[in-house]
Specification:
The complex is a heterodimer. Chain A is an alpha/beta fold. In chain A, 29% of the residues lie in helices and 22% in strands. Chain B is α/β, with parallel strands linked by helices. Chain B has a domain at 53-82 and 123-301: 3-Layer(aba) Sandwich (Rossmann fold). Classes of the chains: A alpha/beta, B alpha/beta.
Chain lengths: 460, 340
Amino acid sequence: MATEILMPALSPTMEEGTLAKWLVKEGDTVSSGDILAEIETDKATMEFEAVDEGIVGKILIEEGTEGVKVNTPIAVLIEEGESADDIEVSSGGGDAEPAQAEEALEAPVEAAPASAPATPKAKAVEPDWPEGTELKQQTVREALRDAMAEEMRSDANVFVMGEEVAEYQGAYKVTQGLLDEFGSKRVIDTPITEHGFAGIGVGAAFGGLKPIVEFMTFNFAMQAIDQIINSAAKTLYMSGGQMGAPMVFRGPNGAAARVGAQHSQDYAAWYAMVPGLKVAMPYSASDAKGLLKSAIRDPNPVIFLENEILYGRSFDVPVMDDFTVPFGKARIWREGTDVTLVSFGIGMTYALEAADKLAEEGISAEVIDLRTLRPIDYGTVIESVKKTNRCVTVEEGWPVGSIGNHLSAYIMQNAFDWLDAPVINCTGKDVPMPYAANLEKHALITTAEVIDAVKQVTYR
Amino acid sequence: MAARKPSAKPNVSPEELKQYYHDMLLIRRFEEKAGQLYGMGLIGGFCHLYIGQEAVVVGLEAAASEGDKRVTSYRDHGHMLACGMDPNGVMAELTGREGGYSKGKGGSMHMFSREKHFYGGHGIVGAQVPLGAGLAFADRYLENDRVTFAYFGDGAANQGQVYETFNMASIWKLPVVFVIENNQYAMGTSQKRSTSTEEIYTRGAPFGIPGELVDGMDVLKVKEAGEKAVAHCRAGNGPYILEVKTYRYRGHSMSDPAKYRTREEVQKMRDERDPIQSVRDLLLQGKHATEDDLKAIDKNIKDIVNASAEFSKESPEPALEELWTDIYADEVPQGDAVEA
């Protein structure tokens, strides 16, 4: 009986990939464990092994094909005596496949395919570059790498350390190519000892260097949080201004997809609470680049919260010699009159999508991306609330002590008379992240919840 | 303050010996005064005295050269005095005054001096160990031949981050001397009750880090071991461990009733092994100094310590505006940065 070989998902967030190379040809006999093909994801090139025995009856996807969706049939395996001509290829994969594919597309965000542009319809009201600047499409991942490479070129004391940043080219490929350009002195693989290497990074900053400490994810930075807060954030104060830690702690933060409670957590509100730290959480590629360059130059310790799901998204990035985005300046992604949506990081995905759908219903939402959480651009938020008189905050983190809670209090104290409805905080649910696909989807915030919140505050 | 000229011989000159006597006695009298001021309510919070351990820092500072760095725990007053920080600034920090090294914002456990390459003063047990390795990492990156002394206690020697640091310091050959100041009690828990080995210095062996046990009540032995360790690091051979066996006469902090050991145990140490008394004996027996010479040193130290106490009382409390300063740097702190 013929067996379809499907495009595999090789990472939690993979939605599609490139079939880089076939290592078998039609007519070859394969047994389980044989390497069939090389598949390139946005993170790495992986070898794909046969699970079953058989003869390669037909190759359905040519090597070099990009954007092959997970679960697409890529080849057919036949048994002795069968003919490749008898093969009927299903259009969408095997029997068990549709449910998975649907989940893959929907969870955890209603995302465009990883490589497709996610630039929203409404243009930024206040772009960070001069009018007429040439723009190029770039993924968040590439923008982050370029930011580090540019700063490493201009300052010999900038170096990057972390797990798999060098020879592996980055667990999420963010540091791809840096080892080749800057060498092993400045691109340093560490053992899996976050507490220790974070402390060594802080010490190196005391000693005059400008470290970029990559955490494979911020979940693992909890092992190092003492060094981040007690050593990096507080030393300038405790030394009466004599010495501090000019450095960046960066890595993916928040939920990825289907990795469960210990690997899915948004630390935005945790770090935003700490005086002495600066905290950036970009959404777009241009902000990722501009803010990371600012972070590396900043004389203070900066927590730079990235997002695995956003890594593969493309946005317009200005082609400029030295493009930076200042801390403490929010970006208004679309102007509106009926409600202010305030978000940051991946939360912007929901906010922008909700704004699009609300527009269809005649509700005009102003969408603000805070971009940095310490400092926060309160002015832009208050000004907007004074115009729209309503506000909904959107973030993936937990509800208690959230950034939304803080903004609500700030708005109440500074624009109470302008409010026509209580501020609503849309957040992740107050639960550890479940593994099951349907539960995970409900644990995260959804665009529908944002739309509902807007309807509540606008009394629709 | 300490004699800095590295000596190839274990023997030291009478001048150097007198200097060690001076430096150790300064620490002891300073700490006694700090204890007094604590009793008077002028020093608050936690205050960890170094009395009994003086030979450790004085011996190691004698092995250090200009530009070498040091970082330690919260029992840090002795380290600061030994590396030449101003007693007035240290005492005024203890009393939380404007004239203190951190303008009164750090206190006993959190003091720093960029000028003297003293990187704290850290209140979290063991946290200074990776920081010390990081300082050494910076020196190796900047390609100079400086060495960092990372001091920690026998209690901290059970912290996980210490071993993470041993591993990285070894694979990256960092020029750091890990100094385990083993005063035999982690707060109130004796080494026997808390630590799987009696020989903590051997814990570097699995990481390929050489280590040795040093008599921390003998300043000359400490200096000699320090010189060996520093030479090892400076030559690019990577880290070195010195377990310096010492003893603190006072409690863990000022608020420690010290019920975990007997009065007799402490008294025996004081009578038989006191590091200052033994140098005093050496000076007198070798006729390198007369009673009068030593009296003059004692008097000089008394004056320095009294002056620091006066300064620490007279220096005003920090202005309220200081609450809001030094949270963020306006510019990159002065470091040893190279030009891009």
